[in-house]
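Attaching the record inline, Q. Sequence:
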Amino acid sequence: YLGDGSSFSWSEFTYSYGLYYNKEFGEITHEWIKEDPRYAVTFGEARSPETWQEERKDDIPVKLYHRGRVEGLNDKYTSYNFRYAELYIMKAELLALTNPSDISGALAELNKMRATYTDPVLPAITGVSTHEQLMDEIFKEYVVTLIMENESPWFAAVRIEHEGRPWIYTLKPDVNFSTNQYCWPIPDDEIKAHSNKIDQNPGLE
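Structure, as predicted:
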């Protein structure tokens, strides 16, 4: 980084271009996002990333949108390495998979996150009585809480099942997916090599 934004200009432009011109997240997930109380904070109006085009559009994920070489060469962009919110969602998923009958235990982790690590504070998720409903709520939380952070919703979409197969097949019914095409954040060899339980840090729930 040279200090004037020049080394970021191309990457910021292409990233912004994608978010501006391909802003739909799919019918199901976009409906979830627009119904979420955080929508007014994470989405809004933004200018085109093209230097010659001054149009503006609404419904842009401004939480992630980079103004880049047009309006914000020196912007300090929000970068999400790993948030506590994601840890709670992951814990809920882990509890749901290891003890499917304990619906309230896994749901408690989602509601703890919604009450503690969101602004505005979100109401508790209720009305979940089956394991299938629980997994759907966990996947939905990956989408509405994280949106595109670290591509976490993508990994959840190929990991969490809905109606007997991964969510990605419901979200993208016109695309042919193969498990050989899945990309995971951690190589299989590394997962197999580190199968021992890791103790939690003292003081953390």
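The chain is about 45% helix and 5% strand. The first strand starts at residue 44 and ends at 47.

More tomorrow.
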